[in-house]
Write a structure and sequence with these properties.
globular, binds zinc ion, 2 strands, two-stranded antiparallel sheet, mainly alpha, 3 domains
């Protein structure tokens, strides 16, 4: 048998091969992306079954899971999991229990979204981004901020203080995470949906405006600080608003009863 003659170079770019068949590709799974999707599954298991042996081992003292300051979690595997935390946080919403497993600045645990986006001036004065809601409630908000605040940060601090007072009152109860866009039966994370999200977005899927990890429709229209400031200037609250329920978003406060739905559509187009 003669030697198999291989072409001198690839005839089709790997990127094209990995595209779905409906997009003109061969539908081959990109292993790096698939690996990330499966790691997200591990992250979700870690956060949703906090009493598992593995989670107990990873959870070091009062620190958050995978806190970069935890020296016992060095190595490539932990670094990969840690690197996916911003994506995992963007895909989850937290119903607060005692607040021990929830990052105060980074997780989405209030209707206004992550504190880092809702109170950007104040968040820029935080001494550490990886601090739990539980810790902030026990130490006080000022303990996790630098001593001197700018005028806008001081203003945001006054708005935030009452929210902190009410946070994490479920002492003894674990925080519960629900999944956005990739939930599966039994509260599990669907890795195929996560893979689709990675592929759909690819690099640069984050929000160029505020740096959020995923620029979902809800983020674009209601969640991004830019969008919230827009609705706020019209005196409309975005609390609880979602793109799926856009028809329920009431803009009559801004334009009266004439045609509020058409007005909302125009605003979305503008955003
Ligand atoms: Zn944004």
């Amino acid at each position: 048998m003669g030697a198999l003659k291989l072409p001198p170079k690839c005839l089709v770019a790997w990127e094209l091969v990995c595209r779905g068949k409906e997009e003109g590709g061969l539908g081959v799974r990109d292993l790096a992306t698939q690996n990330d999707a499966l790691l997200l599954k591990i992250l979700h298991r870690l956060h949703s079954i906090p009493l598992s042996r593995w989670a107990t081992w990873v959870c070091l003292g009062e620190r958050l899971l995978l806190d970069p300051r935890s020296s016992g979690l060095a190595g490539e595997h932990w670094a990969a999991l840690r690197g996916l935390m911003p994506v995992y946080r963007a895909l989850t919403r937290v119903s607060l229990g005692d607040g021990r497993m929830t990052a105060f600045w980074e997780d989405h645990w209030l209707p206004c979204g992550p504190m880092r986006c809702a109170f950007p001036a104040l968040a820029s004065h935080a001494t550490c981004s990886e601090v739990s809601v539980w810790a902030v409630r026990n130490l006080g908000l000022d303990a996790v901020l630098v001593p001197r605040l700018s005028t806008s940060a001081a203003r945001e601090r006054l708005l935030l203080l009452p929210l902190v007072g009410r946070a994490g009152e479920g002492e003894g109860e674990a925080d519960h995470r629900s999944l956005i866009l990739c939930d599966q039966k039994g509260g599990r994370l669907a890795s195929s949906a996560a893979y689709g999200l990675f592929r759909l977005g690819g690099e640069g899927a984050g929000c160029p405006e505020c740096g959020a990890s995923l620029e979902t429709p809800d983020h674009l229209i209601f969640g991004c600080p830019f969008a919230r400031a827009f609705w706020c200037s019209l005196r409309l609250s975005t609390s609880g608003a979602s793109v799926r329920a856009l028809h329920l978003f009431d803009a009559s406060m801004a334009v009266g009863s004439a045609s509020p739905h058409a007005f909302v559509q125009l605003c979305c187009w503008h955003l």
